[in-house]
Every structure is written in structure tokens, then in C-alpha cells.
């Protein structure tokens, strides 16, 4: 982009279009003086934005009173929940059930939840896990366990993974 291309236009409440041109640079806030903004009353308004050239980009548009400080940086990160973990697998061993799943991008931690009633309800077995594996050492012979895993980030917790049942052969082990 150069100062002579990638312009865009904006207007408020169907007013006159205002052209912004020569705005280059990433992470930079620009101040605009406009009669449309000066006479803007409190309340809801419609902001229209139009691009003139292919390649023009606009990330954020902030309207605030005169004298207010410009926002810093690029603004907050997107607030999206992580996807549900995939590939959950359970392996029964003589004294435990090993769980493993695929990592989820943007995840801070994982939680493992277990059900003993066929998946009707789950109790959190472990949370705050930084890895994609967990060993359940609190298992009992003759019980079928169902597991799900969730991923969490600063926004919150994902939906649960697909449910997996521990192999019924656990009753014959250890």
C-alpha cells in the first residue's frame, strides 16, 4: 500500500461520504476531524464503510469524544472459545486408563471429565492440564468409564470432545 492507494470512505447515518486516503502502517491509530462527528448526538448510529481499491483494509474504527486518549496497540485479541479436542482415545492397562487427544490451537489448558453412568453426567477428574495425555489411576475393576475432554483459553471452555468409553476388558485386568 502507498499513500496514493487503498483508500476507504465512511459516513454516519447516511450523511456525506468522507474519504480517508494515505493511511499506511500497521497498528497505528489516526485522528479525524469531521462535522459529522462533531454534531453526533448520544445514542445509536449507523456507520457505513466502503473500500475504493482492491487491497484496502480496515481493522477497527473507534468513535470517541474530543480529548479522549487514542486506543493503544491493535486492541484486544479475538475472544473465541477453542475448538473441542479431537482424537480422544482410551487405553486400559492393569491399574489405570491412559487417555490421549490431539492438541487444539489457542488452548491454555485441558480438563478431563469422567462418567460412570453411560455419559448422562460427568465429573471433572482433572483440570489445568498443559499436556494432551492423562492417566486415570482411580479406576475400579468391573466399571465402565466414559470420558470427554475440554479445552480452555482466556475466553472460556470449549464444547466437550466426542465421548470415548474405556475398554470393557478392564474388568479382567489387574
TrEMBL record:
Superkingdom, natural source: Bacteria
UniProt-listed SUPFAM superfamilies: Fibronectin type III
Classification via InterPro entries: FN3_dom, FN3_sf, Ig-like_fold
Protein's name in the database: CAZy families CBM3|GH48 protein
